[in-house]
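Hi R.,

Here's the chain you asked about this morning:
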Amino acid sequence: MRRKLSLMACFCFAILLSNCKTSQPLPIGDTSENALDWEGTYSGVLPCADCEGIAISISLDREGKYVKSSRYLGKSEEAFRQEGRFEWNSAGNTITLAGISDSPDRYLVGENQLFHLDQEGNRIRGALADKYVLKKVVDKAGHPLLNSKWVLKGMENYPHEDWSPGTIFVFLEEDSSRLHGFGGCNNFFGVYTLKAGDGLELGKIGRTQKFCQDEMQAENIFFESLEQVRNYQLMENVLELRDENGTLLLTFGRDV
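And the predicted structure, written out as tokens:
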């Protein structure tokens, strides 16, 4: 009798031990939540049916709080601010901003970017897909590209041996996200956006209206090249600006 009780006790203990082992959570591996440096601020301009676009800024912190700012371009300069908490889904790759009154605001979290999802939680596809991406904003304080005069040394799309860039330069202002410079004939101005990693975009380039017979062709190509810039490579005092495919467009030297 004692032997039967002993065997039964061992059997029950084995069952309990087995249940304890299977009840422990299984490892989930790397996810956006635990593997990416997602904390920070993301910005972009989403498509809008009755305005020029919706300028969005979303800040996320490690405590699960968000601050969202929305501005309807071409309609109002006032920014609509919302804040609250966000939650991760079970897969650890998507967040939902709580407290949004009209509809759930869901984003797929990628490396240095947020993908705005549709009402069903799916990625937006088609010709406008790239417009539904928010990029992580870079901290500009002390950035080596900024507040330096970059003098043009070479322009790949204008490889004339007898051409000299002369005094062409660009200057990126740290405190205003604006740029200015000289294109060989005209002064120019615009805005820039630094993105995580080596991302850089230059846009809204405007210039004075002087006409210089000998410099206009090179200057026009210079401005076209500026607007194609998507990435940069910095090697001490040499700056290379490249397009979205990594093709070299312009080479500058820091004026020291």
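The two ends are 95 Å apart (CA to CA).

Let me know if you need anything else.
M.
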